[in-house]
Structure formats: structure tokens, C-alpha cells
Inverse folding.
């Protein structure tokens, strides 16, 4: 089934309007003072250009930390995990061919990455993975029997906040994480459909293991994502009352049991970089930033749990508070989670299966919340970043609940998600475009001195209806590029933007011509 011409036009318009806000300065930006971005770029450049793990000529070197490797105690490695960089490396390698032909200095000294095609390769990578993620989620919805077309899925994804890291801060991990999460959802939906049709499920289980392993390689605190394929299967089975409980339970158990096997594939990289099977997070980052330190003893574990329990009263602030409240910056993470809980409690699959699903839901959601509360800040950059794994679970909850819900509740959920989605997209586009919509250094609501924006949403409600932040946003985007094309940007930047626009429109045209 193809989307209607109406849906195709709106999808292409949505893509074009969003693309207008892509940050025009990103290919010239100096990342040397940004530990996160420089780390991920360092991984991509050393793998994509030199095909090794020698970081001595990487942009992240001044900000690298020395991990306690007994064999090589002075060997620098980036502070952040390697997954995003390794995923971007093939694109960096492909575009570096132009740098090699033109003799660009980035080939010999990776710290001279600005205005290089290799640097642009990282940008292309995150766009490709973002669109691949949307496609996987759309296909997962079709496997689950949910009537969501590419326009609806794209709108939901844009309202998650992850597009900020595609349009404005491409050297972060979240576009890559989004792909890994989508792979897990797709695997779980495929598991359910294969069981319902009596087909083999081994390939879907392997796909889920791959997706969760990627997510952990990108960010270690994504451990709960190992449960996402099984949770997707269980929620769909409870909502549809099929297939048989025994086969569903066996497949879910197999997905959970095999998920940790993927971690073995990460061990060679861990030992090569850090000299340990599991790197010490404090040693990597040098500090906990005022957060709750990880326990090293039984007594410490008790204190750790007690401290987190005390911090749980901040959950409401995280969900609907003025500082990037999830309900307003990633609404499906909240609404979809509620729908998932409703399916888990009221689904038709036996009490034991429902109880297991409820416990997995709690474990999944509370793991991300615990990380957020432990670090006592949003994660900086934009939004509650450590809670991004809630979005794919919310998407599953929506897909599981929708086909069996009555017309009126569906209309209510559609209206709520549409309204909050508009707020979320506006919040993402205007973040950082005025002092009131930016971070400042002060005491956070969670009790640590850090970058925080406690009044972001109240300020957004006022400033979104003025021209000032929109003017800055458009000047930072394509309109600003067009205005400064002859005075500030080298011609190649226009070519890069044109290539990315072709990627956006090409993906939009392709996805709207797919048949069911």
C-alpha cells in the first residue's frame, strides 16, 4: 500500500521545512574544546583514515584521558565510547578519497579536519542512519499491524528531539543510537509476526542482538536496550492475544538470553582501547561531575540505592518540569510508555506473561531514569539525553495499543501527540537561539552546579511568538547561508548542503513509493 498523494506532499514539505534549519556553520566548527564531539570524530577519523587505533594525531588528543592500561600507561584514548565513530568510519573513508586526490592536510594530520570531505563524511553518516532508523520504525509498525505511514512516523521521530543532533550537532551519538534502537524495535516486531505466522525466528533474534550491541557500543548506559526486542514481542503478543503463550515466552526468553552474547564482540575493542573488559567510567571521564558515584562495596551499594531512592521525587520534574520536560520535548516517550503499561496490565496473554512484561517495562524505564538522577543533570547539549531509549519503547506502546483501541481514545491520543509534537519540534529548533533558551552555569534542580536551563519551557512559551529567536534560527540555517554565501562560506559548503538536501529529498521520494 502506497501513501496517498496528500501524505507524500506533506512528507516532502515536512522534510524541506526541517532541512531549512540545518546549521550552516557545522563544517567549519572547531571541536577541539568539545570533549564529546572531538572524541567521536577521533574514533571515526582514526578508523576511517588510518585504519588503526592510534589517537596521537586526532582532534580529541588534547582532551583525551589516559586509561590505566598496565602495558601502555601513557597511551591516550578518547574519553567517550567508540560505537558512533566506528559506524561513521565507512562514510569518512569514502569521502576521504576526495581529500586524498586534492592533497588535503587532514589525511596526514587529522586535527586539520575543518572544511574537509572526511569531516563531511561524518555528517552524511548521521543523516543516513537517521533516515534508516525512520524506515525501520515504519516497517516495524507495518509488521505490528499499526496503520502508521512514513509521514506519521517521520513526524513522531522529529518530535523526539534527536533531530537536533542530526541538524545542529552531528558529531554527537544520538542519530546513531536512534538507528540501533530502531533495529531492536524492528527485530521485536519481526519476531512477533514470524511467530504469528509459524515461521522461524532465529534471524530476528540475531538482528535484535546486533541492534542492542550497537547501542551499548555507542553508549554504555544503554544496557537496558538489550531487553527492547523481547519487550516489543511481549507487548505485541499481549495486545493481539497471539501467538501461543508458550512460543511467545520461549522466543522472548531466547531474545533476552542471547542479548548479552553480543557484548563479547565488544571485548576486543575494550581491551585494545582501555586494557579492560569493562572500562571504568570515572577513569574515562575523570569525574562524576557532582553526580552520585558508583558503588565499590556492599555498603557503598546500599548507600547508592538509598541516594537514588531519595532522588526519585524529581521524576515529576523530569517528566513535566520547565527544564526540557519529557512531555513537551519527547512526548511519545511519555504517552507511549503509558500506553505500553496499559497493554501490559490489561493484555490477554496470561497473568505470568503480563507480570513479566510489567517488570521488564519497569526495569527498562527505571534504568534510564536512574542514570539521569545519578548524574543529576539533563546530559547537556539538548533535552534529557539519557532518556532517549524511552522513545522506541513509547513507539512500541503506541503500535501495540492502537489497532485494538476504540475510535475516540485514538482521536484523543492523536490530538495530544500532535499538539505536544508541535511544541517539541519548535523547542528543538529554537534551543540556543536566545539567552533564555540556552544553558547557563548554575545550581541544577537536582542539586549539582552544572549547565542547566530550569526555565527553558516557560521562556519558550513567551519567545516562540516573537521574531527574535526565529531570526537567529534562520540566520544559523539555510537562509543565513544564502545570505552569506559569497562573503563567509567557501563554495564547497554550498555543494555539501546541496548533497544533504538531495539525500533528504531522495529518501522522502523513495520512502513514499514503497509498497506494503
Amino acid at each position: 500500500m502506497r501513501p496517498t498523494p496528500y501524505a507524500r506532499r506533506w512528507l516532502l514539505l515536512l522534510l524541506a521545512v526541517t532541512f531549512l534549519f540545518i546549521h550552516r556553520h557545522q563544517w567549519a566548527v572547531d571541536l577541539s574544546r568539545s570533549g564529546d564531539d572531538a572524541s567521536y570524530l577521533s574514533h571515526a577519523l582514526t578508523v576511517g583514515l588510518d585504519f588503526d587505533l592510534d589517537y596521537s594525531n586526532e582532534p580529541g588528543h588534547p582532551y583525551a584521558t589516559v586509561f590505566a592500561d598496565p602495558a601502555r600507561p601513557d597511551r591516550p584514548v578518547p574519553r567517550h565510547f567508540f560505537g558512533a565513530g566506528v559506524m561513521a568510519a565507512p562514510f569518512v573513508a569514502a569521502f576521504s578519497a576526495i581529500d586524498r586526490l586534492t592533497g588535503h592536510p587532514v589525511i596526514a594530520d587529522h586535527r586539520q579536519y575543518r572544511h574537509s570531505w572526511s569531516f563531511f563524511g561524518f555528517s552524511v553518516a548521521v543523516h543516513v542512519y537517521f533516515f534508516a532508523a525512520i524506515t525501520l520504525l515504519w516497517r516495524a509498525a507495518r509488521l505490528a499491524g499499526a496503520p502508521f505511514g512514513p509521514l506519521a512516523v517521520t513526524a513522531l521521530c522529529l518530535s523526539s528531539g534527536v533531530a537536533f543532533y542530526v541538524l545542529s550537532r552531528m558529531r554527537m551519538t544520538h542519530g546513531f543510537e536512534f538507528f540501533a534502537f530502531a533495529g531492536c524495535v524492528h527485530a521485536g516486531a519481526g519476531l512477533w509476526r514470524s511467530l504469528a505466522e509459524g515461521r522461524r525466528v532465529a534471524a530476528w533474534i540475531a538482528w535484535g542482538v546486533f541492534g542492542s550491541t550497537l547501542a551499548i557500543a555507542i553508549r554504555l548506559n544503554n544496557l537496558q536496550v538489550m531487553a527492547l526486542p523481547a519487550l516489543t514481542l511481549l507487548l505485541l503478543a499481549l495486545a493481539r492475544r497471539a501467538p501461543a503463550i508458550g512460543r511467545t515466552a520461549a522466543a522472548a526468553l531466547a531474545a533476552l538470553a542471547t542479548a548479552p552474547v553480543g557484548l563479547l564482540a565488544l571485548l576486543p575493542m575494550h581491551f585494545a582501547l582501555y586494557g579492560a573488559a569493562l572500562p571504568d567510567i570515572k577513569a574515562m571521564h575523570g569525574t562524576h561531575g557532582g553526580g552520585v558515584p558508583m558503588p565499590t562495596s556492599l555498603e557503598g551499594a546500599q548507600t547508592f540505592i538509598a541516594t537514588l531512592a531519595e532522588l526519585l521525587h524529581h521524576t515529576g520534574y523530569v517528566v513535566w518540569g520547565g527544564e526540557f520536560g519529557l512531555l513537551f520535548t519527547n512526548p511519545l516517550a511519555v504517552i507511549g510508555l503509558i500506553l505500553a503499561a496499559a497493554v501490559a496490565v490489561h493484555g490477554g496473554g496470561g497473568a505470568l506473561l503480563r507480570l513479566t512484561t510489567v517488570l521488564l517495562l519497569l526495569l527498562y524505564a527505571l534504568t534510564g531514569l536512574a542514570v539521569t538522577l545519578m548524574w543529576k543533570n539533563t546530559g547537556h547539549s539538548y533535552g534529557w539525553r539519557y532518556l532517549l531509549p524511552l522513545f522506541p519503547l513509547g513507539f512500541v506502546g503506541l503500535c501495540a495499543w492502537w489497532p485494538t483501541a476504540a475510535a475516540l481514545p485514538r482521536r484523543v491520543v492523536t490530538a495530544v501527540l500532535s499538539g505536544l509534537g508541535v511544541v517539541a519540534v519548535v523547542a528543538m529548533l529554537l534551543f540556543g537561539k536566545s539567552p533564555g533558551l540556552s544553558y547557563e552555569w548554575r545550581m541544577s534542580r537536582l542539586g549539582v552546579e552544572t549547565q542547566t536551563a530550569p526555565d527553558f519551557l516557560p521562556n519558550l512559551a513567551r519567545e516562540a511568538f516573537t521574531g527574535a529567536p526565529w531570526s537567529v534560527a534562520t540566520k544559523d540555517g539555510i537562509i543565513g547561508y544564502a545570505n552569506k554565501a559569497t562573503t563567509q562560506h567557501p563554495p564547497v559548503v554550498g555543494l555539501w548542503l546541496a548533497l544533504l538536501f538531495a539525500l533528504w529529498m531522495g529518501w522522502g521520494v523513495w520512502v513514499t513509493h514503497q509498497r506494503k
Notes: Residues 117-143 form the longest helix (27 residues). The mean pLDDT is 90. Residues 143 and 193 are 6 Å apart (CA to CA).
